[in-house]
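Reader question, answered in our methods column.
A reader sent in the components of a multi-part assembly and asked whether the whole thing could be modeled at once rather than chain by chain. We filled in our standard form and ran it. Here is what they sent:
COMPLEX SIZE: two components
ENTRIES:
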Amino acid sequence: MSQDPRLVRVLVGCYPARWRRVHGDEYSQLLCDLQVHRHPALVLDSLRGAARARLVPGGLTMSTRSPMTVAVWAAALFTVAGLGFQKLSEELLTVANGIRTLLAIAAAVALLALVVAAVPTAVALVRGRDHRAWWYVAVPFVACAAWLVLVQVALAVADGHGVHATQTRLAAAAVALGGLGAVAATAWAASTVLRRVPAEQPPGLRRTALAVLAVGMGATTVLAVLWGLLVHAHDPSAFTGDQGLVATPFVPSWLGTVALMAGAAVLAGVASRRQSATER
Amino acid sequence: MADDLGRWAEPGLLILASLADGEKHGYAITADVAEQVGVRLGPGTLYAALGRLEALGLIEGRPAEGRRRPYRLTAAGATELTAQSRRMHRLATLSLGRLGTVQA
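And here is the structure of the entire assembly that came back:
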């Protein structure tokens, strides 16, 4: 492959690594046989093929976007939405408490399903199938520690200022962004471990777990919508007031939280569908 | 499955037809399709279709010969190609017959 013309190497390099491991050599040879450097249309066609291989699920050899990777990122988005909902609802505990409880149960079931799906990989990791993967396990702890330090700094910056003060808002934004970074780093580490640690999967485990994940996230989203409507019915002043995130209006915070949950549910649905297709 | 391969110029169907007379590697498939049907399959299109057909079990990759990997039709691929060809043959017969009636 290193003897191939630069253009051929670039075009092959556009494909996902997993695809290249299976088809890289034969595809390089085909591009050489076709004299691709003389045909811009073939270059474009190759680029389209690479984009398709990255974006469209096409089985194990055609895509690096494994169902578990998508599920982990869905869980990350869901976690962010859940934290937002918790923050949003903590000052409205007397309204629609039953819905909040149901929502918490649905969310717990969804996330527990993802944990169950990851158990075979965790067992393989503990059994030492891939020692280097332990480095990734440290990522969430380091990220959380860094975020806690950031929170302390933010508290110091906001200390003595009102809730609408610029310092307070900047500190809150820094804490939120830091939290997002910690969640993203954790999701990245988790998906990397799930991808690289070889683990035998019991038949149907992941398919069932990811289906439960998608249903749980969908139910959580519906309950979050219901909760907001009940707030509107029982406490109109809170609904129209500035009891949203970081003392902003309630409605955009509520809708934003619901949108994040819905996005996570859609991603989980995609993961579930891909897993089912893989096991068929 | 039939819907996936039903369009006349669908690369998957062209590849199945090309492999019907024996195994071929990627370049041989593109050359054969270009010569016999007049359709030029780009490399990205070809490999996307090969991957799809392989995942469906209609073709299978053979051990590589140097850097070229031949592909061949499976029994399921032959059955699918037969079914599609008969369907297209019926459609062609019907269309030509009706056009002939119209022109007469």
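What stands out: Strands of chain B lie at 59-61, 71-73. DSSP finds four helices and two strands in chain B.
Send us your own complexes using the same form.
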